[in-house]
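Explain the record.
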Amino acid sequence: MGNTPLYLLITSGFTVILLAILNLHRRIPNKRPRKIRLKRIHKDLALSEYESFVFQLSYSMKYLSDNSIGALVVIENRDNLQKYVILGYEVKAKLTAEFLTTVFGNKKSALHDGGVIIRNFDIVSVSSYFPVTQSNMVSTFGARHRAASGLTETSDAIALIVSETTGNISYSQGGKIFEIEKDNLDAICEKLFQVLSFYID
């Protein structure tokens, strides 16, 4: 299997990861937060699909934050990020909280480092690396934040970051870093609905 993502996951502790997935699956609530409301919807996009996407992403961020697991998740917009996709491990997987938290949850795995790229609701790459910003505005941040800023300086992508040190959740847009309230799942969902509105514009 070589250095494929599946091989790396297996050699990094498949049993531990499987148990973590089963435990996480039991903990994911069946109902989405009540506060979520979507005013507009693209004619070709079912509300349930978009709503599920945002919820899975939000729950992942909350879980990673609660457990102080560092993560970098990039959501592609109009600018194509294929040059970064091929620098990582290319995959084709529907975004789920189980998949995303498993990728970042095993700190001994090579997949823990780098970032995940999402395109049209699907994860298309894991362990991808991005240009680090040279801006002094984010010089006090860690490597994930600086990579997120560097990427969003040169593209219209949105990057979500979880700090391994503090558990703080933030996002980068246009090279800037913005913090998201981390203690409330509803608040995370509502913010991501706003930030990812290009999916329904």
About this structure: Helices lie at 5-11, 14-27, 47-66, 82-85, 97-105, 143-153, 185-195. The chain has seven helices and seven strands. The beta strands are 71-75, 89-94, 115-119, 122-128, 158-162, 169-173, 176-180.
